[in-house]
């Protein structure tokens, strides 16, 4: 009886197919990026142009893509997207090798490297209008598309050296079995690109599609310590807990660097896609659930606009990775300029709200350890519990129902606000080690909205 009930619960969400702009404060030593002219408001129509697939676990060297034919491009009509000028603080040097060095330093020191003000700029870009309903729905549909199996998988090309080009032909691998995938949308003028990343594929048993790798990344990003020290049903994804509520942060950082890790795969995917379109000045990211978290982390890394949907709280992952942030910057303080990251979700989704972690929650019953509570950027929350009388349920996490029952049902987009006074893993202690069982540093502060800097 229990198994039957559990199966019914899980099947409710196994099929993923089924803003306010605050004034800018320019700190001493910071500068504006004037490499592009000040953008203006515009209307854009997007079409799907390419699909990319980055292997992680079974095929760590696989990175392939294929182009969408003109006939297939016209099959889907997306709502009109309204673009507006935005200003985002980001690194002056965003080359892959420089980012690699910053992340390596963060791993060795247990926290993000603190850079001088000269390393940062405030870029004037063209971004999605985060207060416009049509735009919010359009990017949500792009996030939905990342789940849809590709109709022409035999046309894959691999990314790598060959014939004096970064592109050459390769044999095909299974679509769902391994890695991170995303869809690339371009507007009519090829001046703005949207990259949508696939989210979590829920399933009762590991090994179905990308579920096992998704769960590994979810639990690395969202649990306090590898899924250890919590409920029995949580899937343990590393062995870094040394005693009750005590975690080896060095061990955690090493676990995040494995070939299974979607953030690293996302960086490579982002780098190869943008290298194909060097003339494009506006790159936006979107994604649902885990795809939204990866999109948010990439947005913080490269300083580009991001709109996510029902993403679980991501501040813990950003802190754990040691992502660089401007001097004196603290997530949760709106007097600083915009990060460009907007998280859309509703109150009946326990994954988005950070409450899907009780003993009998749908997430716990299938092994997900969602302990994180704090979002980066701004959250735009539809109060479906109060307005529509919904009850909290993992079934309301599916992007297809979010689009039809929430985003399209509401007349207006909610006000997007900065989360404050939020703390992750408040009862855990984290420490750095030298690779032995001995601690080499004092216990570190936990990743919190106030501490992530």
From TrEMBL:
Pfam families: Lipase_3 (PF01764). Its EC number is 3.1.1.3. It is an enzyme of class 3 (hydrolase). It catalyses: a triacylglycerol + H2O = a diacylglycerol + a fatty acid + H(+). GO terms for cellular component: multivesicular body membrane; vacuolar lumen. GO terms for molecular function: phospholipase activity; triacylglycerol lipase activity. Residues 1-19 form the signal peptide. It is a single-pass type II membrane protein. Keywords: Autophagy, Endosome, Glycoprotein, Hydrolase, Lipid degradation, Lipid metabolism, Membrane, Signal, Signal-anchor, Transmembrane, Transmembrane helix. The keyword Membrane applies. It is found in: Endosome, Multivesicular body membrane; Prevacuolar compartment membrane. SUPFAM superfamilies: alpha/beta-Hydrolases (SSF53474). PANTHER family: LIPASE ATG15-RELATED. Binds to both phosphatidylinositol (PI) and phosphatidylinositol 3,5-bisphosphate (PIP2). Belongs to the AB hydrolase superfamily. Lipase family. This is triacylglycerol lipase.
């Amino acid at each position: 009886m229990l198994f039957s009930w559990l199966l019914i619960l899980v099947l409710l969400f196994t099929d993923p197919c089924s803003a306010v702009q605050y004034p800018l404060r320019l700190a001493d030593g910071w500068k504006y990026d004037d490499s592009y002219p000040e953008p203006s408001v515009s209307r854009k129509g997007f079409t799907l142009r390419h699909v990319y697939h980055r292997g992680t676990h079974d095929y760590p060297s696989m990175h392939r893509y294929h182009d969408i034919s003109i006939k297939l491009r016209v099959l889907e009509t997306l709502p009109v997207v309204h673009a507006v000028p935005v200003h985002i603080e980001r690194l002056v040097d965003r080359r892959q090798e420089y980012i690699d060095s910053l992340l390596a330093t963060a791993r060795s020191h247990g926290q993000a490297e603190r850079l001088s003000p000269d390393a940062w700029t405030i870029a004037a870009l063209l971004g999605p209008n985060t207060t416009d309903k049509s735009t919010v729905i359009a990017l949500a549909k792009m996030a939905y598309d990342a789940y849809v199996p590709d109709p022409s998988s035999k046309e894959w090309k691999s990314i790598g050296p060959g014939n004096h080009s970064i592109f050459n032909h390769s044999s095909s691998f299974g679509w769902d079995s391994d890695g991170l995938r995303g869809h690339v949308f371009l507007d009519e003028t090829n001046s703005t690109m949207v990259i949508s990343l696939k989210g979590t594929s829920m399933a009762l048993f590991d090994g179905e599609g990308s579920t096992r790798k998704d769960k590994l990344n979810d639990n690395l990003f969202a649990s306090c310590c590898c899924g250890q020290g919590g409920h029995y049903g949580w899937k343990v994804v590393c062995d870094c807990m040394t005693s009750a509520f005590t975690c080896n942060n060095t061990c955690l950082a090493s676990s995040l660097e494995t070939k299974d890790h979607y953030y690293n795969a996302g960086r490579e995917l982002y780098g190869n896609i943008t290298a194909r379109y060097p003339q494009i000045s506006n790159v936006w990211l979107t994604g649902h659930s885990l795809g939204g978290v990866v999109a948010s982390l990439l947005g913080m890394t490269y300083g580009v606009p991001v709109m996510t949907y029902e993403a679980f709280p991501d501040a813990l992952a950003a802190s754990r990775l040691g992502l660089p942030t401007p001097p004196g910057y603290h997530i949760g303080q709106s007097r600083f300029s915009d990060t460009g990251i907007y998280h859309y979700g509703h109150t009946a989704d326990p994954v988005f709200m950070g409450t899907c972690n009780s003993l009998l929650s749908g997430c716990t019953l299938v092994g997900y350890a969602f302990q994180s509570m704090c979002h980066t950027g701004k959250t735009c929350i539809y109060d479906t519990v109060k307005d529509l009388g919904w009850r909290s349920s993992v079934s309301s996490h599916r992007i297809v129902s979010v689009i039809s029952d929430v985003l399209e049902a509401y007349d207006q987009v909610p006000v997007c606000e900065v989360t404050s006074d939020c703390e992750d893993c408040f009862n855990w202690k984290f420490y750095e080690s030298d690779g032995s069982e001995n601690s080499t540093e004092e216990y570190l502060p936990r990743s919190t909205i106030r501490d992530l800097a």
